[in-house]
Design a protein that fits this description.
Blueprint lengths: L7 H27 L6 H10 L10 H18 L6 H37 L12 H27 L11
Length: 171
């Protein structure tokens, strides 16, 4: 069998591409550090999926995410060639991070709804906000209020409903 032809040009091209990827990745991690963002969205989502309970997030987690995503967007807008490898990597990173945030929000909202439903039925309200962000606390309060007023309305209808007349005397 014939051996593939060897070219130093091909070797150097691959080497330059790997260096460029390293530079781009360094820009992304440098952006996180510069913005003071210490979060890994994919890891946060993975941890949230593994547990039945809410995982602890900083109170300002979603503000941090907003700053980070805005920074990625600004970095992308600075790229001169929108078809370059750098632009493609930044676009993919931005898309992936937004996707992770949306999935994380969905996971956490499901858990918050379950917690609100569980706590609406009981008098127990201790540690209700443990691990929640400010925005999630508001969702929880609204859910708890809606469930409580809805239950009261249903119970009020049940309590005021008269028994149907059967024509039989009560014993």
């Amino acid at each position: 069998p014939a051996l593939p032809s060897f070219s130093w040009r091909g070797v150097w091209r691959k080497r330059v591409q790997s260096i460029n990827l390293y530079i781009i990745w360094s820009k992304i991690t440098g952006l996180r550090k510069r913005l003071g963002v210490k979060l890994d969205l994919a890891n946060a989502l993975r941890e949230e999926r593994k547990s039945a309970e809410l995982q602890h997030l900083d109170k300002d987690f979603y503000q941090q995410v907003g700053v980070y995503l805005a920074g990625l967007g600004q970095e992308l807008s600075r790229v001169e060639d929108s078809f370059s490898v750098e632009a493609q990597i930044l676009q993919d990173t931005l898309k992936s991070e937004k996707n992770s945030v949306n999935k994380l929000i969905d996971q956490r909202v499901k858990k918050i709804v379950r917690r609100a439903l569980r706590n609406a039925r009981s008098a127990s309200r201790e540690e209700a906000f443990q691990g929640m962000t400010d925005e999630e606390e508001e969702i929880y309060r609204q859910m708890l209020s809606a469930i409580g007023s809805g239950r009261e309305a249903i119970l009020a209808h049940v309590a005021h409903t008269e028994r149907p007349l059967t024509g039989k005397k009560d014993i």
